Every structure is written in structure tokens, then in C-alpha cells.
């Protein structure tokens, strides 16, 4: 489970022991990847008693537990820098070495637009909403579909169109090792849902690697 809300200079943050509660029961944490994570120069280990809330990974946990009730969990927050690509490759190598069947989830929102987010390059109204979805979000989606992890990081850095790009870049490397590519299932914004706030809205993308 890869998430983020980190800056490019932040360390990797991971929980490698204990368990994480969900409405569908507790997720036991997978411990085997801790040794690999400890080789990264910047790495923060979280525990049950010492961790930081983060709604990129936490939001996905009930769905994952419901779908895979017997699975172990490895939650990692990934900064949006070159280390994300290194982490994705290291995770792919680890899974291949131990022969573990895994399902990866990368969580990020897309463009955060409006005065609440201090980001209004196209003003407000329908034109701004159209730009955010059809231009700004679309640039990130194109990068993900290209399979180029460096492009994912670059477009998010330049266009501010993903809050956890490191997670997606790492997942891209993991998928690449498995010979998989990204396919978009759906793309929308909070402005398309009620209540309709067209001044402050966030983009959302759903898709799979296959």
C-alpha cells in the first residue's frame, strides 16, 4: 500500500510491525521488507504507538481488507523524488526473491484547485474546471499511462497535479517489473459530486495495472 503527502526531500515512512485496525478487522503488518527499507539513507520507521495520520493510505485500507481478508499489509509513504523509483525497483526485487504474491495499491489525488489550496492559475468557473480536468489532470494521467516513472514525478512537480506522485512512480516501477502497464478506468472531480463547489475541488483517478 503506497501513499504519500510528502515533499521531495522527505524520508520514506513505513510501518513494518504490528497491526492496523480497519472496520473489517485488523491488518497484520508484513515484516520482511524492513531490512531492505533500512538500507535507504532516509527512512522513518512507524509503530502502532508512534505514527503520523495520512489519508492517502488509510482511506484504502477498509477496501483492501474487505477484498483480501487474509492478506498482510505493508504501508509505505513515498516522497516524490528519485528515491520513489529506487523503492519501486527494490520492492519488485524483494517480492521476486521471496516468491510472495502481492497486490499493489498506490493512492493519490490529482489537481487541488481553488483558493482553499492556493492554486488558481486559470481563475474560477467552468473554464477553470475544464482546464484542471482536461489539461492539468490529463497531463498526469498521460504520464502514468506512458509507464515512465520519471515523467510521473516531473509532471507532478511542474504542474502540481498530484499530491502523492511518489507512490504512483514507485508503483509504476513495480508494475514495469511485472510487465504491466496502467489503464484508466475513470476520472472525475469533487465538483462533479454534490455539493457542487466549483471554486474548490480535487481531481480523482481510478485505474489498474495489467
Level of helix content? Answer: 25-40%
Figure out the total of helices.
6
Order of helices and strands: EEEEHEHEHEHHHEE
Strand arrangement, major sheet: 1-6-2-5
Termini gap = 17 Å
Number of strands: 9
Mean pLDDT: 94
Please give a structural write-up.
With 210 residues, the protein is of the alpha/beta class. 35% of the residues lie in helices and 19% in strands. The chain has helices at residues 34-37, 61-67, 82-98, 126-146, 149-159, 165-177; strands at 2-3, 12-15, 19-22, 25-28, 43-46, 76-77, 112-113, 182-189, 201-209. It is globular, with a radius of gyration of 17 Å.
Quick recap of the structure?
The chain is an alpha/beta fold. It has a domain at 2-98.
What are the defining features of this structure?
3-stranded antiparallel beta sheet, alpha/beta, 35% helix, 4-stranded mixed beta sheet, globular, 9 strands, 210 residues, 6 helices
SSE blueprint:
Layout: E1 2-3, E2 12-15, E3 19-22, E4 25-28, H1 34-37, E5 43-46, H2 61-67, E6 76-77, H3 82-98, E7 112-113, H4 126-146, H5 149-159, H6 165-177, E8 182-189, E9 201-209
Helix pairs in contact: 3-6, 4-5, 5-6
